[in-house]
Amino acid sequence: MYDTPTLERTVDSNTVKFSARDVHVFYGETEAIKGVDIDILDNTVTAFIGPSGCGKSTFLRCLNRMNDTIDICRVTGKILLDGADIYDKHIDPVQLRAKVGMVFQKPNPFPKSIYDNVAYGPRIHGLARTKADLDVIVEKSLRRAALWTEAKDRLNEPGTGLSGGQQQRLCIARAVATAPEVLLMDEPCSALDPIATAQVEELIDELRQEYSVVIVTHSMQQAARVSQKTAFFHLGDLVEFGETGQIFTNPRDPRTESYITGRIG
Amino acid sequence: MTTAAFLCLFVLAVAGYVWNRQAASAIRADGTRLHSLEGFHGFYSLLTVLVPVIVLILLWLVFQGPAVDSILKAGLADRLAGLGTGEVQLILAEIKSISRGAVFGTPEQWKFDAAERYLALNARADQLLLVLVLALSLTLVVLSRRKVAAEFRARHGVERIISGLMIFCSVVAIFVTVGIIASLLFETARFFAKVPVTEFLFGTNWEPQIPLREDQVAAAGAFGWLPVMLGTLVITVIALFVAVPVGLMSAIYLNEFAPKRLRAVAKPFLEILAGVPTVVYGFFAILVVAPAMRSFFAAIGVDVSPNIALAAGSVMGIMLIPFISSFADDALSAVPQSLRDGALGLGATRAEMMTTVLFPAAIPGIVGGILLAVSRAIGETMIVVMAAGLIAKMTINPLDSVTTVTVQIVTLLIGDTSFDNPKTLAAFALGMMLFIVTLVINIFALRIVRKYREAYD
Predict the structure, then answer these.
(1) Nearest in space to A226 (alpha carbons), one of A237, A213, A239, A238
(2) Which of B137, B164, B191 delimits the end of a domain?
(3) I need a surface site. Which of A102, A178, B322, B363 has the fewest CB within 10 A?
(4) Looking at CA atoms only, how far is residue B291 from chain A in angstroms?
(5) Domain termination site, one of B123, B146, B164
(6) pLDDT digits (tens, 9 = 90+) for A185-199
C-alpha cells in the first residue's frame, strides 16, 4: 500500500518536549479525549493519525491551550512543556501560544500585506526593536518557510492574493516568526493540491532541525512520508504510539492494523 | 354591484381550477404520463382567469366615473353652454348629491331629471361590467380548459404568469420612486422660477416670509439654504459623536467579549431601542435631556439657548445607536473564524485580535453602516421638530439653537398654504436638496457595503 520509499527515519533526539499524563477533554458532557499519555520529542516530527472525530485535533489544540477559546471545553490532567505544567495558573496562555505556534487546516492569512502578516507576531510580542530588526525577522521567516524567492518582490501586496499553497507557507512563516519552540499543524495540507502539498511536506522535514513539529493528518501516506513518530487515535483513546516505521509495518494493536489497512476509518 | 362582479369572478376562477384539475386527473387515470401535475393545470386556469379580469374590473372602476360624467354633460349640453369649468363642476356635484337624496334648497326640475339619468347611467354601467366580467371569465375558463392535455406545459405557464406578476410589482416600486422625484423636480423648478438658483445655493440668510400686502415693511424673504443645511450638519455631527462610539463599542463587546447569556439579554434590548417611535425620542429630548443640559450649563456658568442643539443631536444619536451597532455586529460576524484562530494562535490577546485583525477586516462594513446612519440623521424629522429651534443661524456652536432642513420643510407646509408663492415652494427645493444629499450618501454607503460582502466568499 505504501510505495513511498521510507525515509531514513531515525529519531535523533531524546529530549522530551511535551509530556502529557492522563489528559481528558470534555465538550460539555461528552468526553472527547479519554486519558492520553504521550511524550513528544524535540527535533522530531510527530504525526497524529486516526479516523474523523477520534480526537486528534482536540488533543493538538490542548498543547497550546487553543481549547480555552471554546467556552464549553474543559481539560483535565497534566501537560508539561519542558517540565512546566502549561495548565498551571501562573502560565499565561497568550505567552504559551507564542512559544507553541500553530498552523491551521485552511490557510488563514490576515487581510494585510505579506510583510504585515509575517510581522504580526513579532510586533505584538515586541520581538523587534527597530524596523531593520523586523525586516531581518520577516526575511528569515519567509526563507524558512521557503517562500522568500516567490514573495520578496511583493512584500507589500496582500497575503490573500497568494495561491493556496503559498498562503499556507505564509502561515507557516507567520508562525515561525514568533520564534516558537514547537509547531502544531492541524491538517496543514488538506486544502492544498498535490504539488503544494509536496512543498509543504518538504518544508516540514526541514523545520524539524529547529522545532518539535506535531502534525495532525488524515492521510496515512503523509504521516509515513514526513514523520518519525506516529500516534494513532481512535474514539478518544491513544491506541498506539511509536516509531513511524514500526506503526506502519508492524502495528501491535489490532485496531491500528485495521485502520492502516483501511478497515476502519 | 362591483361586489357581485368580484364574486362572479372568484366563483368562475375556482370552478376553472377544479374543472382543469379534474380533466388532468382524468388523463392521468387513463395511464398517460402528464407533463405537469394536476395542480398546475388547475392553477393555470385560475391565474389565466383572475389576472386579466381583475385588470378589467380595476380599469372599469377608474374610467366609469369620468365616462358617466361626460355622457351626463353631453345630455345637458344646451344648459351648460357658456359656463366655466368651475361652474360646470358645481352643477355636476349638485346633481350627484341630489341623486344620493341630499337636496339643498329648491333645485330646478331639470336637475332632478339629470340626477335620475345619472342613477340610470350608473346602474347601466354596473350591469355592463357584470356582463363583461361573466363573459370574459367564461371565455377564459373554456379556453384554458381546452388546453389541458398530457403534453401541455401548465407548470411553465404558471411560472410565466407568476414571474410576470413579480415584474409588475417591482415596476410599481420603481415608478413610485420616479413619480416622487418627478413631483419634487416639478415644484422645485417652479420655485427656481421665482427665486434665483444662486441665491438659494449660496445665500447665507434664511427668512422665508413673503409680503402679504404690497406696502408691508421689511418682509422681503431670503431663501439661502446654507444656514439651514449647516444646522442639519451640526445636529448630524453631534448625533454621530454619540452614536458611533457607543454603537461600535457595544457591538464589539457583544460580538467578542460578552458571555453568551449577557448577549442573549443585551441584544434584544438594543433592538427595542431601534423600535422606539421617533416621537417618543422627541419627548425624551424636550422633557429630560434639554432641561438637564440647560441646568448643567447654567450651573457651570455657560449661557445656552433654550432649544439647545446638543440636546436634539444627542437624542438623535441615541436613536442611531442600534442602527450602527447592528451593522458593526454583522460586519464583525462576517469575519471568518479562521482569522480569529490565526491571531489567537500567534499569541494575541482578544483585544489585540480585535484591534489588529477583526476591526480592520470589518471596517468597510462598519463605514457603510455609519454612512447609512448619517443619511438617516439628515432625513430624521420628528426629534428635531420637537427639540431643535426654528430660527436659521450661521453657527456651528452646539450650545446654540439651530434649525434643520426637515424642520423648515415642516414649518413651511404647516397650516393653510397656497402653492404659488416662493415660501411654500421653498419646501420642495429644500426637499430636493435633502433627497440629493441622502441619495449620494446612500449610493456611496451601499457600494462600500457591497464591496465588503464580496471580500469573504
Answers:
(1) A213
(2) B164
(3) B363
(4) 46
(5) B164
(6) 998 988 888 888 888
Indicate the average pLDDT of chain B.
87
Q: Can you tell me the distance from the alpha carbon of A51 to that of A57, in angstroms, rounded to the nearest whole number?
A: 11
* B341: chain A residues, CB-CB within 8 Å: 66, 69, 102, 104, 108
SS3 assignment, position A31: strand
Same domain, B104 and B229: no
The number of beta carbons lying within 10 Å of the beta carbon of residue B141 is: 21
Query: What is the C-alpha separation between A167 and B439, in angstroms, rounded?
Result: 40
CATH architecture of A16-260: 3-Layer(aba) Sandwich (3.40)
Residue B314: which H helix or E strand, with range?
helix B309-333
**CB contact, 8 Å: B183 with chain A?**
no
ipTM > 0.90 for the complex: no
What's the farthest any 2 CA atoms get from each other in chain B?
Answer: 99
Contacts of residue A60 in chain B, CB cutoff 8 Å? Answer: none
Strand partners, A232: A49, A240
Counting beta carbons within 10 angstroms of the beta carbon of residue A71, is it exposed (0 to 12), middle (13 to 18) or buried (19 or more)?
exposed
Total domains, chain B: 2
Whether A97 and B455 lie within 8 Å, measured CB to CB: no
Same domain, B414 and B326: yes
List CB contacts (< 8 A) between B258 and chain A: none
pLDDT along chain B (457 residues), means of 10: 86 93 90 87 92 92 89 82 81 86 81 87 90 93 90 90 94 93 91 87 82 60 86 93 94 88 87 89 92 90 84 93 90 89 90 89 86 90 87 84 89 78 86 90 83 57
| Spatial separation of the C-alpha atoms in residues A3 and B77, rounded to whole Å | 107
pLDDT, one tens digit per residue, over B240-264 is 999 999 999 999 999 888 888 888 8
> Span A59-77, mean pLDDT?
89
- CB–CB contact A120 B336 (8 Å): no
Bridge partners (DSSP) listed for residue A30: A27
d(CA B339, CA A109): 7
Contact B342 A64 (CB under 8 A): no
Same domain, B15 and B132: yes
C-beta atoms surrounding B134 within 10 Å = 16
In a domain, B338, yes or no: yes
| Residues of chain A contacting residue B338, judged by C-beta atoms under 8 Å apart | 104, 106, 108
Tell the residue number behind the cell numbers 508539561, with chain if given: A80
Task: Look up the domain containing B125 and give its range.
Answer: 2-164
